[in-house]
Amino acid sequence: MSPRQYGSISSDGAEESVELIPHDENFALNGTSDVSDDKSGKLKERKWFHYALAALIGVISVGYLHGSYYHPRLVDHGVDHAPGDGSNANRVPMPKPLSSLDPTSDLGFRSTKRSGLASPSKVWQKFAHDKNDQQLEFTQPLPTNAWYMNLLSHKAAKDPARAGEVAHVYTIPYIVGVSPPNPKDMPITTTSTSVMAGIDLFLPVIKASSRNIQMVFDKYNGVSLGALVDEKKVKNIDEDDSATSYHVINDESSTSISPLGVGLQWNHLDMKSYIVRGMPYGTVAYGKDVLPTILSGNRPTSIIIDNDDSNKMLCGSLTGKPIEQVPNRKAPISKDGIAHTYTVEKELVFHLKQSDFTWVVFFSKPVKLRCFSDAVPMVSVVAPFEEVKFRLDVTEVLSEDDDDEDLVVRMAVASECTTGRSTMKEHCDRTLGYDTVSSNMEKYLELLRKGKDFYPKNPLVGVDFPKEDDEADERMTNVVVDWDFTSTKANKSAATDQASTKLRGVTQSTQNDVDDDALIMFALPHHLESLSEKDGSMCFHTFHGRTCLVHGSTWEMPVQHGAPQSFLADRPPLADV
Asked: Of residues 253 and 355, which shows the higher confidence score?
């Protein structure tokens, strides 16, 4: 019988045979041999030598991989620490990199210089150490396909106020923009050159057809939170800048680029905002000389101060004059049409007519404010369309002179279906098969009040690998999300347990008497399967399905491994397999 040959390779056009088993004329495939005893003995000795050598190599390889797997070096924002370093106690370990060589300078690979629209925009200026030929020289790799990149495009970087939908991102459940409407035409001291810098919050609904599925919203149902800036008074603006431009935060409070969010700081206003996936609130922090403004394309029906139904706010009319309204469509406007000032200690709750949304706004300090509202007059008058139908201005922050804390303003949708009369009926869909926040607005409001003082700043994602002494049935990897909750009071961390500090290399917990249950974020359906501290009745219907609140400063989502993998087979592989 002719010997079988296994495989072939081509070399210079000629085919070479590759022999994987002995197949001379004296060797039979069934395992028997006609060779002499001397040759047979040598063959057996050679075979056992090969087996022993393979086993030795296998043991060494497994030992090396085992040591690398269970004893990795730890990474802390670019600083490499040895495993025995006490500063890394309870750290979530990061695997060793496959290589620490620079592809260009060390390995000789060609690099590409990006220029023009292909280069990172000016929002990354704080991540560059200098300018070279008018190009920023960056100190670390930058994201190119993160979910929030629309906020960081060249168009958004140059003039966010005019970027429009180009600069929208889906944080889930909100769509967030950075182009508030124009607030010029108001009966107050706003100049014709004033523009609004800040964020927009929209709550979308799902629209589907035979060809696509998308999240849509009515832009006039959104609410904007920011501050006014006079374009004529802003100095040092070049052709690639504007009065409402911003940059990505890179300071001692936020030093890494997160896959879950980005911090923005406005260039010509002392104002910051942190845009994070799953955030229940929109959050803006204001410096001492900046006063907040809130705008909407809907007129309000009621404004309640500090959760007191007897303490309601009345607005001035858009013209500043008295107006006789249609009785069943009244807006909360004063009789004289003048905007009076009110003191708010903690919160405002207002309901908007067209969207049927109820919004809540929280202030970290007592403030004085006033508002203006559109109205439906008894006698119709031809007038130009006004994009802004509701405006609320903080006129004074009531704090001590030596108080250096920022004023932090947070707002959220408390109900998307308050009366059932929304212009977008999908917000009142009762056929979902599960409860939403609109089903129990009072409960959701209480949760929002409980967590109003803590916002996520620079969330990190890491992996907690199995330990060396774990039993086979206990081997589990945990995907860890540290939300980096920060208190609105003195910019302090809101970490409540040791687990929340693992990803940041902190050995002692930052105890601030914070109830971990107060820290809330929205989770997607596949997250909810692994998380225990969830609230199944506090949900929104989003593009990804049922999206519900989860409590806690960190999330730990386990991945079961089972028995460890081995490089040794239970039996030798057959030659003909």
From this structure: 355
For 100, list phi and psi in degrees, rounded to 5.
-115, 10
Q: What amino acid occupies position 357?
A: F
Distance of CA 350 to the CA centre of its chain: 27
Distance, in Å, from the CA atom of 205 to the CA atom of 212, rounded to the nearest integer, reads 14
CB of 464 closer than 8 Å to CB of 487: no
Q: What are the tens digits of pLDDT across the range 388-397? A: 899 999 999 9
Counting Cβ atoms within 10 Å, is residue 443 exposed (0-12), middle (13-18) or buried (19+)?
middle
Q: What share of the chain is helix, strand, coil (3-state, %, to 5)?
A: 20, 30, 50
Token pair belonging to 391: 């405006």
Backbone dihedral region for residue 193 (phi beyond 0: left; psi -120 to 50: alpha; all else: beta)? alpha
For residue range 467-517, what is the model confidence (pLDDT) as tens digits?
A: 777 676 677 888 999 999 999 886 566 654 444 455 665 433 444 556 778
* Greatest alpha-carbon span in the chain: 119
Q: What is the DSSP letter of 315?
A: B
- Cα 299 to its chain centre, rounded Å, is 31
Tell me the C-alpha distance between 9 and 15, whole Å.
6
Specify the residue for token string 């896959």: 259
Among 449, 274, 457, 492, residue whose Cα is nearest residue 362: 449
In Å, how far are 189, 259, 484, 501, 521 from 527, measured between CA atoms? Answer: 49, 16, 18, 21, 11
What is the Cα 497 distance to its own chain's centre? 22
Nearest to 344 by CA among 311, 295, 314, 374: 311
**Token output for 289:** 């000389």
Question: If DSSP codes are grouped into helix, strand and coil, which group holds residue 54?
Answer: helix
- 82-141: pLDDT as tens digits: 334 444 444 455 567 788 888 888 888 887 777 777 788 888 888 876 555 456 677 778
Q: Which residues are within 8 A (CB) of 461 and not within 5 positions of it... i.e. 6 or more apart?
A: 258, 259, 260, 479, 480, 481, 482, 503
Could you tell me where the beta strands, DSSP code E, fall in 203-307? 205-208, 213-216, 223-230, 246-248, 261-266, 271-276, 282-286, 293-296, 300-305
* Helix or strand holding residue 442 (H, E): helix 441-450
Residue written as tokens 């050159």?
A: 193
Query: In 220-346, which ranges are E strands?
Result: 223-230, 246-248, 261-266, 271-276, 282-286, 293-296, 300-305, 308-312, 316-317, 342-344
Cis-peptide into 377, omega within 30 deg: no
CB 505 within 8 Å of CB 85: no
The answer to whether 493 and 460 have CB atoms below 8 angstroms apart is no
Place of tokens 């190599």: 57
